[in-house]
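Internal tracking record. Fields below are filled automatically when a chain is submitted to the structure queue. Please do not edit lines marked as system-generated. If the sequence contains nonstandard residues, flag them in the REMARKS field before resubmitting.
Queue: standard
Priority: normal
Entity type: single polypeptide chain
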Amino acid sequence: MISLNLQNLFALPSAHGVQEAEWYEYGKKLPLFLQKVKNRKQGFYEILDEEDVIQNIEKFGASIKGKYSDIVVLGIGGSALGTIALRDALTQYISPRAPRLQVLDNIDPEAVEQIALSLALEKTLFLVVTKSGETPETVAQYFFFRQKVEAEGLDIRNHFVCITGSKGFLRQEVEKENLTSFPVPENVGGRFSVLTSVGLVPACLIGIDIRALLSGAREIRDQFLSEDFKINIPFQLAVAQFLVAQKGKTQHVFMPYTNALRSFANWFAQLLAESTGKINMSQKNVGLTPLPSIGVTDQHSLLQLFVQGPNDKLIIFVAVETWSTDALIPVPEDTSSWKFLRDTSFGTLLQAEQKATADSLTEEARPNMTLSLPSISPETLGALFFLLEGAKAFLGEFLEINAFNQPGVERSKILTREYLSRKK
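SYSTEM-GENERATED OUTPUT FOLLOWS
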């Protein structure tokens, strides 16, 4: 489903790359680290098998088919980024008759108002997404759009679905108003939740095959649970990221060579930053800084920095092997200076540029690796989601942190409440 090419890391001097001896030495840690991850009792690798949840989502999708022109997700962070990535990556798999999916992942007043003005409320379904049920931004959005729906004389039960945990304000709203709801498992954090109801419900409602998505994820999950270092690609990725980070490469660029994964890079940024930026067991500040990028666009904006700037980055390329459409470049016969493009498709040019960029970085001792997907599909996207989730779980154990919490953001939430309370 996905291959990991580390040859450009192995080709570098030891100060910048990965030596095969240290690679295999760290590979011996797999059984211990796998047990450590299991001891965290996180459910991100277990939720792929919840058939009752999958069936309930599919039944709901079938029951409302054709009723709505717009689906609006009210959520932020892990409640939004995965859904945006799904929508943008799988556009070709979405029927033109499917409702428009919008994600309101901010409380910018102009953005809120613009979405409100774009909706025919009688044909709009809001998905209110917050695991805690207490996220202030999402609850504020819910209050705003609920008032508008009620002002139109509409029944909120036909226009709001809650995707939330078992406690909190939103769960109380579900019980009080008899709203349709879907669960967010208590042991799955927001940035690991795209393959739960959080991502599966909106995906299903716009016609994405969620069973195919989960099937791809399960294939990588089986590798993730293996103690065989040769086949455990999530662990291999974690080892590579950790080893280069130990050599000062703490900025990790995620650079897919396909527009389909542009939003996916933003999902990766949250996953890496929120999972690794912690105070570890030795009371040291640790973490890896994500840099979302896109090929070939950023060859013309960021590559100069990557090649000749500080050697503090690891470039993670994502390459695609085949495309659903791939036109030949029509080079006129009388333009000899461009003959290298003759009989070349856009996809072939894109692949050549990715390989050339990787090799040019290697020549300058800049560490890079390539994840290759056979194509962009629900199966491969599910696999890629889980590969990166699994790698971050292992990476947390290397860094001696809990990859699944986020204590650093709590103070901001407390102060926000205090500032607003002072105005009352």
